Give the backbone structure.
Amino acid sequence: MGSAVGVKALVIGNGGREHTLAWKLLQSPHISEVVCIPGNGGTATLPRCRNLALSMSDFEGIARFALVNNIGLTVVGPEAPLAAGITDALQQQGLTVFGPTQAGAQIEASKAWAKDLMQEAGIPTAKAAVFTDLSQAIAYTKAQGAPIVIKADGLAAGKGVTVATTLEEAQAALEAAFGGQFGEAGKRVVIEAYLMGEEASVLAVTDGLTIRPLLPAQDHKRIGEGDTGANTGGMGAYAPAPVVTSALMERIQREILEPAIATLRKRGIDYRGILYAGLMITPQGDPNVIEFNCRFGDPETQVVLPLLDTPLDSLLLACAQQRLESFPPLEWKAGAAACVVMASGGYPGDFQKGFPIRGIEAAEATGAIVFHAGTRLKPPDVVTDGGRVLGVTAVGESLQEAIDRAYAACDRIQFEGAYYRRDIGHRVLKVGNVSPPVAG
Ligand SMILES: Nc1ncnc2c1ncn2[C@@H]1O[C@H](COP(=O)(O)OP(=O)(O)O)[C@@H](O)[C@H]1O
Ligand SMILES: [Mg+2]
């Protein structure tokens, strides 16, 4: 606090998550400027933020820029650069990075590796087996029976998992994976028992020694209302997720987060960044890990960070510099946040780009925050530039209020073909009220 010369931060990525990270960093009294590589229309128009047109895979170029421009903190958004070793490359130049090394990112980049880690750590997760041979994989599915879950091992942009309700479906998924549908990512598959229950996301910050959860969130992955239709990158989210009670969060900390970090350390991995646990809460109320991710979730970040009162840069620096244990308890706003994703017509299939977006200022005049995802600045307009276009986010005293405010803001925004779900939060609103914050 109070230093005359602020810290410059670098955010890697170009989605709604990265706009949210840049926006939250700039709320800190210590941050003077944020540069996004490559950024989007939102980060191009955010005051004290600018975009730099470098490739996310140009680690040398990024390191040179960060050194010359005295970047004090680099935050990496997406999994692909983490899995490709961006953190290792920047750390070798003496830069301070929030995000795990390539070795740590395996927890997301290889589902087989993650499963093995969970088994070693004693973390509750579905029973599974790993195969590199189609006929053995088919024999195993037949022995297990349907429903069963087939997962490509490597990064598949959210398209590598089939929840097969019949053996025929399972076999088709195996044939597609071994046939090269996901490239090398699918030449190894994890076959996993089907778990029933409710999904929730717990993002935790860690410095490799200490791990602390953020507020729990839930998202809506399907394109259609009532959670129907094709899978997407996420059509909306809300936090805190009432399904994760404070008692359950304590179990998640003890049974999942702490063992994961301890076992990573046992493997010689100094993991500093987000550990994101994708959970299935069974009907008995037990948390099981569906997957780990090695970065902030999108759109979960859009609802978790607006509720955070602790300066984000201080928290991320404490992780990057391995002093999380002595960091003060996280401070959260009371109430809830909701995010409604406005998408291009046709998404997650084919869609057109380049349509001007109107009404963002009017939407923000309601008090909502319009996070940009697939947008681009094309002066004087901001135009659509991707499938998920905007994450219209609002905070309220209750989840119902947050949702109503987010929709009131959506109503003020127009672009050709705009599509959004009208039922974000329906699972919770059916059940009742928002529980108090439970993260530490
Ligand atoms: N064992 C399982 N039982 C039931 N559903 C599952 C299981 N594993 C995954 N799923 C479903 O498939 C989705 C995607 O699986 P996940 O492992 O999260 O892979 P990714 O996010 O990399 O596509 C999950 O969000 C969940 O809905
Ligand atoms: Mg997932």
User: Anything to note?
Assistant: The two ends are 22 Å apart (CA to CA). The CA atoms of residues 310 and 331 lie 5 Å apart.
